[in-house]
Recover the amino acids of this structure.
C-alpha cells in the first residue's frame, strides 16, 4: 500500500465532500482523482500537484498501478477518446496506463454501453453524449457488488434509541456483529465515534464497508474525515490504535450506544450494531474550483470543460453495491464465563460510510473507494423481512 496515495486520497475526499455539502449523497473521490491523474502527462509545471496531493508524475504512476492491477472486488476502467480535431494522439496513448481504453469518441449508444459494462449495470446511461466541439473525452468507472460475509439480522427500528429521529420514521433496521470491526473509537476530528465494518470476502480479497457515526452536533465533514482514517486502519487490521475499551466508558445510554454488564464466554468486550438500510444516487459537478478539473481542462488545451460524476449505492441486509462514473469533456472451544461489557451501537442519525479495499501485496490495500453521508435512511425492504426479528 502506498502511504502517499492514501494521504492524497484523504485530502481529495475532503475537497470533494466539502463541494458537495452535507446533503444525503454518495461519491467516489477515488474515481475523480484517478481521472484527474490521467491528465498528469500534460502538467509539466506541476499545477495539479496541490490538488492531487502529490506531484503529477507520481500521481500518474499511482493511477497506473491501480488500473493495471485491479482489485478482485472492484471493477475499474478508464478511457480517453478523441476526435479528428485532437492533436498529439500518439503522445497521449503512450502516456496513459496500459489498461486505459483509447480511440475515437463512441456514439451515444456506445457511450451508454460502456457505462453499463463497466459499472456492473448499475449506471445504464452515460452522462451527456458526443458533442461536435469535443476534442478529448475522458471517462472512469468504479463499481462493486458484494454480499456480506455475514448477513445482517433484522430488528425493530426502536432499537435505534428514544432520541433517534429514525426510530419512529422507520419500522425495521439491520442488526449485526463484526469480529473486531464493531467498536467505539477515539478520533481527532470527531471525538468518540461508533464504527461498524461489514466485510465482503472473495478469494482472500476483502472489501470493508465502514459506517461511522459521531455525536449529532459534529459537522459532516469531520465525521467523513474520521471515517476515511478509520476505514484505512480497518483495512490494515490496525483498528486497535483508536479502539476504546468499553470499561473506559460509563454504563448507560447515549444517542450513540447502550452499555451494560452481564455474563458471557470470555471477558472481552462484546459489540453489536443497529443501522438502517440506505440507497443514494446523485450527479456531482466537478468543474468547481479546487477539484482540479478546471486546471486539467486548460492543460489539455480546451476552451470548454464539462466534468461530472454520477454515483449510485445501496446498503442492504444481504450486501453492498455501488458505482461511480466520472467523465470529463475538453472542447474452536468455549472459554470460561467471565464478567463482560456489552454495547449496542446505534447509527440512529446521519453518519458516514466508507468502502475500503484490502489485500496484502496489492496496490489496492487500504484504498478508500466510495464514501457516503447517510441522512435519508430507508426501511428494510419487505422481501428481506423474516419472522425471527430480534
Amino acid at each position: 500500500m502506498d502511504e502517499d496515495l492514501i494521504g492524497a486520497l484523504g485530502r481529495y475526499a475532503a475537497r470533494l465532500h466539502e463541494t458537495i455539502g452535507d446533503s444525503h449523497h454518495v461519491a467516489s473521490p477515488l474515481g475523480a482523482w484517478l481521472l484527474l491523474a490521467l491528465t498528469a502527462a500534460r502538467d509539466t509545471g506541476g499545477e495539479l500537484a496541490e490538488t492531487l496531493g502529490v506531484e503529477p508524475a507520481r500521481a500518474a504512476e499511482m493511477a497506473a498501478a491501480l488500473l493495471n492491477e485491479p482489485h478482485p472486488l472492484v471493477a475499474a476502467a478508464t478511457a480517453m477518446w478523441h476526435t479528428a480535431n485532437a492533436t498529439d494522439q500518439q503522445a497521449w496513448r503512450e502516456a496513459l496506463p496500459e489498461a486505459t481504453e483509447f480511440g475515437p469518441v463512441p456514439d451515444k449508444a456506445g457511450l451508454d454501453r460502456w457505462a453499463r459494462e463497466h459499472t456492473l449495470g448499475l449506471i445504464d446511461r452515460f452522462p451527456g453524449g458526443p458533442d461536435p466541439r469535443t476534442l478529448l473525452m475522458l471517462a472512469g468507472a468504479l463499481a462493486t457488488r458484494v454480499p456480506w460475509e455475514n448477513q445482517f439480522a433484522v430488528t425493530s427500528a426502536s432499537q435505534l434509541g428514544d432520541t433517534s429521529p429514525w426510530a419512529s420514521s422507520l419500522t425495521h433496521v439491520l442488526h449485526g456483529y463484526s469480529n473486531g470491526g464493531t467498536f467505539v473509537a477515539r478520533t481527532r476530528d470527531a471525538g468518540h465515534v461508533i464504527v461498524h465494518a461489514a466485510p465482503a470476502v472473495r478469494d482472500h480479497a476483502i472489501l470493508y464497508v465502514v459506517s461511522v457515526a459521531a455525536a449529532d452536533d459534529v459537522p459532516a465533514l469531520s465525521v467523513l474525515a474520521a471515517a476515511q482514517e478509520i476505514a484505512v486502519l480497518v483495512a490494515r487490521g490496525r483498528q486497535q490504535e483508536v479502539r476504546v475499551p468499553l470499561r473506559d466508558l460509563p454504563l448507560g445510554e447515549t444517542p450513540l450506544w447502550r452499555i451494560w454488564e452481564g455474563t458471557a464466554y470470555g471477558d472481552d468486550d462484546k459489540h453489536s450494531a443497529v443501522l438502517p438500510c440506505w440507497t443514494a444516487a446523485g450527479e456531482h459537478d466537478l468543474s468547481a474550483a479546487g477539484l482540479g478539473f478546471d486546471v486539467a481542462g486548460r492543460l489539455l488545451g480546451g476552451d470548454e470543460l464539462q466534468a461530472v460524476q454520477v454515483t449510485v449505492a445501496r446498503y442492504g441486509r444481504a450486501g453492498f453495491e455501488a458505482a461511480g462514473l466520472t467523465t470529463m469533456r475538453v472542447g474452536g472451544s468455549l472459554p470460561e464465563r467471565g464478567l463482560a461489557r456489552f454495547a449496542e451501537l446505534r447509527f440512529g442519525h446521519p453518519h458516514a460510510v466508507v468502502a475500503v479495499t484490502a489485500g496484502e501485496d496489492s496496490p489496492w490495500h487500504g484504498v478508500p473507494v466510495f464514501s457516503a453521508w447517510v441522512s435519508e435512511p430507508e426501511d428494510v425492504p419487505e422481501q428481506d423481512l423474516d419472522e425471527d426479528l430480534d
Notes: The chain has two domains: 3-145+279-330, 147-277+334-384. The mean pLDDT is 90.
